[in-house]
Write a structure and sequence with these properties.
This protein is an all-alpha fold. The protein has 6 helices and no strands. It is globular.
Length: 147
Amino acid sequence: MHEDATAVEIRPHLRLLHGMRRPANWLQLVRFGLVGGVGFVVNLAVYALLVHFAGVDYHVAAVVAWLVAVMNNFVLNRHWTFDAGEGRAHFQAMRFLVVSLVALGMSLLLLTLFVEDAGIAKVPAQALAVAASMPLNFLGNKLWSFR
């Protein structure tokens, strides 16, 4: 019985190793990174404008910046990164939104910790928080939203 349990535990690990050997997965990761980079710039630009020029609370600014970046990233990831244009857009959009909301939650938590506990300035703190949520975003979208 112990051997069966070990085989089950190893299976996801082997799947990950098998996936790492496929060049297409690495290309997807690069594309996701490029789309994420564009979204990152859009996010920070909107955030900085709202915080520094419009005087919006940094939490509200983070959510608005996230909304703008998420719309941009969904379209680019759907059509370019994951080539999922033939799938049902509304179904993919709902899954993308769920993954993005989880990543937003993590990002907001980190942003608050960086600003209030670590004393990091708001824009650099936003940059760190968004960057830290990228791996979660990639895995969620690759394995669930656009599979």
